[in-house]
Amino acid sequence: MAFVLFILVAVITVRWVVQAFAEDPEIALIYGEPWEDMRQRSSAAINPAIPDETGFRIPKTDARLRYIHPQYGFETPLARFFTISFEDERVSSIRMSPQIEPLLLDDALKIVLDLQDQWRRQGWVLTSPKTDPAIADTPAWRAQLRNENTRGRTFWQAEEKYQIMVLLARFQDDRHPDEERYLITLGIGNIWVPREKD
């Protein structure tokens, strides 16, 4: 009996250690690729696309996005809200909130600024630098974001291939009624907002 108990404790300990050091589940994809390629590559489970249908799927666990384009790749933090759309059994759009819960402003800004830094390094450019500039940690941006009637919005694009929209706005979190909480929304697809003319 003692031996069985020892084995049981050893197995539980090994599983705990493996989970503690395992990488976060991820969805690894490129916009427009075959759905099954994305499924086979990703460590987060997600259901198959439906043949001859248009729809969306949600990963079965919290997961980060790893955009695997060799030039324009980037990674997000873990996301709880994460939908991937399909059309003709191909990835047709991505919509997510790269966070587990609504965040304090400092934490939300940290995520957005890190993503923008990744995009700059990888060659993404602002679509509308005058009308929708990059979000920044400045007093003016903080004042705009704290206003419940406004939000931060910016668009980034990779050549004429892909476009990202980022929204950052106040969010009423009933679990933290006395705190200002913020939600980031990120969408990826083909180019839907034209490039701003000089």
- Summarize the biggest pleated sheet: 7 strands, antiparallel
Q: Residue ranges: pLDDT <50 for 5 or more in a row? A: 8-22
Q: List SSEs in N-to-C order.
A: HEHEEEEEHEHEEE
Number of strands: 10
**Helix fraction by DSSP (H/I, runs of at least 4):** 25-40%
Mean pLDDT: 89
- Overall form: globular
Notes on the structure:
With 198 residues, the protein is of the alpha+beta class. It has one domain (24-198). The protein has four helices and ten strands. Strands 2-5-6-10-9-8-7 form a seven-stranded antiparallel β-sheet. Strand 3 and strand 4 (74-75) form a beta hairpin. The N and C termini lie far apart (78 Å).
Please describe the structure with a list of short key phrases separated by commas or semicolons.
alpha+beta; 3-stranded mixed sheet; 198 residues
Put the structure in a nutshell.
The chain contains four helices and ten strands. With 198 residues, it is an alpha+beta fold. It has one domain (24-198).
What layout of secondary structure does this protein have?
Elements (H helix, E strand, L loop, with lengths): L1 H20 L4 E4 L5 H7 L12 E4 L6 E4 L6 E2 L5 E7 L2 E8 L7 H18 L2 E2 L12 H8 L5 E7 L3 E10 L9 E9 L9
Parallel strand pairs: 1-3
Antiparallel strand pairs: 2-5, 3-4, 5-6, 6-10, 7-8, 8-9, 9-10
